[in-house]
Amino acid sequence: MSTELKSAARPAAPGTGGGKRKLTYPWIMLIVAGALIAVAALRAVSGAADLTSAGQFGAALSAAVPIGLAGLGGLWAERAGVINIGLEGMMMLGSFAAGWVGWQHGPWAAAAAGILGGALGGLVHAVATVTFGVDHIVSGVAINILALGATQYLATLWFGQEGSAAMVAGGNDKQSPPMSDMPTFTVPGLADWLNGIEGHHWFLVSDVAGVLGAAVTGVSWLTVLTIGLFVGTFFLLWRSSFGLRLRSCGEAPLSAETLGVNVYAYKYAAVLVSGALAGLGGAFLAISVHFYQDGQTGGRGYIGLATMIFGNWRPGGVALGAGLFGFMDAMQLRSGGPTVHALLLGLAALLAGLALVRLRAAKRAQAAVAAVAAVVLLVWYALSDSVPLELVEASPYIATLLVLALFSQRLRSPKAIGKPYRRGQGH
To answer: Where do the TM regions start and end (predicted)?
Structure first.
């Protein structure tokens, strides 16, 4: 049975599934190392010291956590063959549940409530798609709409009632009362030593010190939990019989069925976990600012879905995409125009490199477009000192779109994703 399931869940060979080279973990580490060297060089050339500071990377880590949890949730569902664009709504439910419970019982209870709130959204999605065969996109959109309406109504009912305990404690119809802080950890001696190295602004050495400093200074325990969830997901889905069966449901559910796999049960489990992870991402947003607030998710569920696609439905790729978005988001919040202006130079270099790659592949039209764009950005950088505020605010989303555009040809989704399944019947 194990051999046949592995055959059912095995990715297509290079050239048949669209990916020329698999995004393995050694490649991910090389990409991360190359990106760090590039950012260090950009910091040295542009003089934007905050680009690689511990504060920048710490803020990036916090911004990446909810995105990464949403993306990881999407990975669980889609590896089992269920498209989940309802991640945004599940994050809303998690954020609201965390705010509701957190002001009364503290941040850890808020995290647990967020998990349950998101899992409830996942259950609704599973019932609609797995049991009743509703189109996955339609169900996901409906969950997003229902979650928005439900959280706004319940916030008015529970937080904004005149004279209620929640309103007396500081809540209103748009937000919950504040909750206590989530515990964090810092390694005092090591943090101070790394901070000193960072202050010297040595090429690469100080930049690495900034990264390591962010990892040992004021780190939330929820961030540590998130890292553990990424590692656990990899081992559970790719190193266990449970994961093999679950992935076979997204690749060849009929073949899995003939080998005794309860496809319905695995799809339900995957979508419930998907909702729970997205809910924890929503809870992280509420806990980090100490209260639930209307519109708090801000489209992060959709960005999480994008990071999952960019990450090729693999935990390491999701983490990489979430880190990229978190870095850009933190940069525009902390530094604004000057640092984003420095990135024009980096983007120009990236496009120049892309032009050379496309030229070697005999794709002259693409090479010409990339080269022209690189020249335009280089001229823009040379003739200006800052960029418009609107571009600064949009920079995380622009970066996400560019990365998806560059890597879209190397992606391969599970074969049976989004397809209706009925026991004993073909598609």
So the answer is: 25-45, 57-76, 82-101, 108-131, 137-159, 211-238, 268-291, 340-359, 366-383, 395-413
Using 50, 70 and 90 to split pLDDT, how confident is the model at 118?
very high
- pLDDT class for 409, splitting at 50, 70, 90? low
Res 196 pLDDT > 80: yes
Q: How far is CA 58 from the centre of its chain?
A: 16
Provide CB contacts within 8 A for 281, sequence distance 6+.
65, 66, 67, 68, 69, 70, 73, 91, 94, 118, 300, 301, 304
Distance CA 151, CA 207 (A): 42
CA–CA distances in Å: residue 133 to residues 205, 250, 417, 418: 55, 15, 13, 10
Q: At 170, phi and psi to the nearest 5?
A: 115, 10
pTM for the predicted model, two decimal places: 0.88
**Domain extent listing, the chain:** 52-335, 336-409
| Number of Cβ within a 10 Å radius of residue 398 | 12
CA dihedral 37, 41, 43, 47 (to 10 degrees): 170
β-bridge partners, 184: 220
Buried b (16+ CB within 10 A) or exposed e, 238-275: eeeeebbbbbbbbbbbbbbbeeebebbebbbbbbbbbb
Q: pLDDT tens digits, residue range 326-384?
A: 888 887 766 555 666 777 777 788 778 878 877 887 888 878 888 888 898 888 888 87
Instruction: State residue 19's pLDDT score.
Output: 42
Per-residue pLDDT of 166-192, as tens digits, reads: 787 777 888 999 999 898 888 888 888
